[in-house]
Amino acid sequence: MARIEIDDLTKVYDSGDESIVAVEDLDLAVDDGEFLVLVGPSGCGKSTTLRCIAGLEDVTGGTLQFGERDVTDLRGSERDVAMVFQNYALYPHMTVRENIGFGLKLSTKLTAAEISERVESVAEMLGITELLEDKPKELSGGQQQRVALGRAIVREPSVFLMDEPLSNLDAKLRAEMRTELQELQQDLDVTTVYVTHDQTEAMAMGDRVAVMNDGVLQQVGSPEGIYRQPTNEFVANFIGSPSINLLTAEVDGNTLVGPAGFSYRLSDTAPVEGHSTVRVGIRPEDITLTEDGANHATVSVVEPMGNENFCYMELGDHELTARIDPDLRPQAGEEVRFTFDEKALYLFDADSGAALKTKSDAVSPGIGTEVSR
Amino acid sequence: MREQRRKDAVWMFLTYAFILTMVVVMLIPLYWMIVAATLPQQEFIEFPPRLIPGTAFLDNFAALQERMNYVVTIWNSVFIAVVYTVLSLLLCSMAGFAFAKYEFRFKEPLFYAILATLVLPIQLLVIPLFLMMSQIGWTDTFRAIIIPWLANPIGIFLMRQNMRSIPDALLESARMDGASELQIFYRIALPAMRSSLAALAIILFLFQWDLFLYPLVILEDPGNYTIPVALAGLEGTQRIYYDQIMVATTLAIIPMAILFLVLQKQFVSGILAGSLKE
Questions:
Q1: pLDDT (0 to 100) of residue B235
Q2: Residue A96 has pLDDT above 60, yes or no
Q3: Which residue numbers delimit the ABC transporter domain (chain A) (predicted)?
Q4: CA of A106, closest CA in chain B: separation in Å?
């Protein structure tokens, strides 16, 4: 078990005369036993960060600490970490048993019998006991995934690193493995850094989520925290599915004036003070279609999801998305009126993208009803 | 419909007839060599030629063995080719692995320099190599036959191309498991390359097995001769011993045939490697 502390981590790739900054001045701490998800679009530096933690890449600057130990200059095998790769990276010529035991055989002084015992107990934990003598190519994707996990678990490392381990699975299996992985992590209580580009996965799995973009850490926080209080427009836009609706509006006194006749009167003007233009953000679930709404848009498509409908609307050149009741079936081309609550409104600086105002409605933990005993 | 089927059948027949003809054309010299090895010299030059094997194989072999110790010659060739193949396989696969999976200075120029040596004919290298070998006192030794050809450009090229297909994640995974670079090479990369290694083994073995001019220049003692050199010696100035040459060549193809049969399965999958996504 270890706490990971990353200080000023920088990774620059030099390719001839141009250099690419993959990670810039990253400061991040992962608590002992915590499940941290690194999320961001492809090329944002999340995988590079993970590879630096793993020791597969040398860092250009900064330090890495596991607990009290400075591991910056240690090789991957000396860091007591185990990594699960996106394509599993199982050794094709070895059986499942040999695959799982390979690390123990090389890096510990355990006897063959002890290794075998540990391999078998891990296989049992993952439900792959009957596959132990099979070769990887005989296994399904989900089974290969389990073997890859087994290979990481069997070494009882102080840190787990996972690089998009679920991205090669089909949707149903992915959802299953997601839960299983979380339970496993909780049982083993091992500090875990998990990389994904899938924000749904990040929200669902992480104790905390770290959002990266262009090599720079944007925000670290609880899934709910980054959803409700993003530090900037990028985070607000990246987290949430469907994405937040964003449009540019002029500030006219206490009124926001947007494209195609959009206007919204603020009761609290403090966030926009000193700004002539702002970016306005509204989550799809906060838009309500109502006959007395102050703004109107034209419906382009309605996607029924079963439990809800996604209503795509045009506001001038902008597309707005609203999550609406499944009973509501606006028709394409129909003019609808909509409204939203000021508490649910996000405002961002038009130039820097920094958040001026985020969701401020209260969240009450629990389900709000006392169960009488 | 029936017309089409008849057309197909005719085509099939023609195709097989063509293939069969080619097989016969290729097998006739081999068959004739084996038959000739079993005939006494005077029957060999008869016309029309005899096509049924005779019984003089052992006599011919005894005569050959008397003229030169051919058993030792075969042993020399086998020894040189086997040692060469094993060492060259190791060297080529290591070099191929380094070129495919590591970053180092001058990697590209170095690789192209190695490839460029492909255009140098062996004949061009024989004299300089002979001078080098005689300077270090290696003439008339097997090591002089084996060592200069160990770094085989075709072998290095082939192994580099194939090693590139090994996913980096596999090597990184082994690195995380605590494997040293050497362990990664022989525990992960080599086993993954089995079929390519088999194909290369045949290429390398054949190269050394057929090498003629260079050993002819380097080797002096007939007791050290390899098969091609010894065969050339059978064409005397006075008389050509066809019976003995046929026995010698028949025996010369046996080790090669055995090697091919043993490695055939791997060899074929090596040739096809990468042609299908698995």
A1: 80
A2: yes
A3: 4-239
A4: 6
CB atoms within 10 A of CB A299: 20
Nearest to A104 by CA among A86, A122, A92, A88: A122
Chain A residues whose CB is inside 8 A of the B179 CB are: 77, 102, 106
Q: Does residue A348 belong to any structural domain of this protein?
A: yes
Structural domain total, chain A: 2
Inter-CA distances, B268 with A71, A312, B43, B147, Å: 47, 57, 41, 29
Phi-psi region of B119 (alpha: psi -120 to 50; beta: other; left: phi over 0): alpha
Q: Is A16 on the interface with B (CB under 8 A)?
A: no
CA distance B119 to B139: 26
| A75 contact residues in B (CB cutoff 8 A) | 175
CA atoms within 13 A on the CB side of A114: 7
d(CA A344, CA A322): 13
> What is the per-residue DSSP string for A161-193?
EEESTTTTS-HHHHHHHHHHHHHHHHHHT-EEE
Which residue has tokens 């140098």?
B120
pLDDT at A88 over 70: yes
Distance CA B175, CA A91 (A): 12
Q: Could you report the per-residue pLDDT of A145-177, keeping only the tens digit for each?
A: 899 999 999 988 999 999 998 888 888 888 888
Kindly list the structural domains of chain B, giving each domain's residue range(s) and its CATH number in brackets, ordered by start: 57-272 (1.10.3720.10)
**Percentage of chain A exceeding pLDDT 70:** 96
Residue B194: how many CB atoms within 10 A of its CB?
14
Domain boundary among A204, A232, A260: A232
Same domain, A139 and A184: yes
CA angle B67, B71, B73 (to 5 degrees): 80
Residue A61 lies in a domain: yes
pLDDT, average across residues A283-291: 90
- Residue A361 pLDDT grade (very low, low, confident, very high; cuts 50, 70, 90): low
Cβ-Cβ contacts under 8 Å, B195 against chain A: none
Q: Tell me whether A160 touches chain B (CB under 8 Å).
A: no
Output A365 or B241, whichever has higher pLDDT: B241
Q: Can you give the residue range of the structural domain that contains A312? A: 242-357
Q: What is residue A316's predicted lDDT score, i.e. its pLDDT?
A: 85
User: Is residue A369 included in any domain, yes or no?
Assistant: no
A238 touches chain B (CB under 8 A): no
Q: Considering chain A, what percentage of its residues have pLDDT values greater than 90?
A: 57
Tokens of B137: 């006192």
Please check whether residue A269 is in contact with residue A254, taking contact to mean a CB–CB distance below 8 angstroms: yes
Q: Are residues A308 and A163 in the same domain?
A: no
Q: Is any Cβ of chain B less than 8 angstroms from the Cβ of A138?
A: no
- Tell me, yes or no, whether A21 lies in a domain: yes
Question: What is the interface pTM, i.e. ipTM, of the complex?
Answer: 0.80
Cβ A278 vs Cβ A272: under 8 Å: yes
CB-CB contact of A350 with A361 (8 Å): no
Residue B100's alpha-carbon distances to A370, B89, B160, B190, in angstroms, are 66, 16, 5, 13
* B132-180 residue pLDDT tens: 999 999 999 999 999 999 999 999 999 999 999 898 989 999 998 888 9
**This prediction's pTM:** 0.81
Q: Does pLDDT of A369 surpass 70?
A: no
Q: What pLDDT does residue B277 have?
A: 39
For residues A350-361, average pLDDT:
87
